């Protein structure tokens, strides 16, 4: 069964814990935490302080998606805040292998993220070292954008690369995932689907999660 990772970018920040408790109660496995610095992407969101506060009351897997320049500078802070998985953009890392080792040195899971236009060739030599590959299906920076259709083929290619090497690497897909396209994403090979507006954009979060789960089958 596909894992769901609600993106808190689309939650009500004034009622953040309340919203997060709703997705936890609805059975969502990961909490997707979009960290933006206003440099790597044209938007600013949240830092480790908020993650640390949520950690006290939430038992989901904390999946931090760092959309920041120079991520090495902040990895320890996000680890100390309680993240279970940290993913970094290949486009933001000059020494990608070193950054992956840095994350793993804290005993948590490490992942790499690829923008829609970034080739899978860029992760050929680090695939054996990561726990997750996050494929962006929108250009990063904002929630509520439309899924870019050519990413489906990219998911299939990545699934093939992982299976051919016999690796235990999760594929996460992020951006524009809705009940109308989640089956296409899962059938292509995704293990984890991020959903921001498709979950937090709804009055009834239980119903929104149910719709994603039912349409994924
Ligand atoms: O990382 C990002 C955007 O940069 C995502 O995690 C979005 O926040 C997902 O939101 P939806 O596209 O599902 O509304
Ligand atoms: Co994200």
Automatic annotation (TrEMBL):
Cofactor: Co(2+); Mn(2+); Zn(2+); a divalent metal cation
EC number in record: 5.1.3.1
Binding residue positions for a divalent metal cation: 32, 34, 65, 174
Catalytic residues (UniProt): 34, 174
Top-level lineage group: Bacteria
Cofactor note: Binds 1 divalent metal cation per subunit.
GO CC annotation terms, alphabetical: cytoplasm
Name this polypeptide is given: Ribulose-phosphate 3-epimerase
UniProt organism field: Peptacetobacter hominis
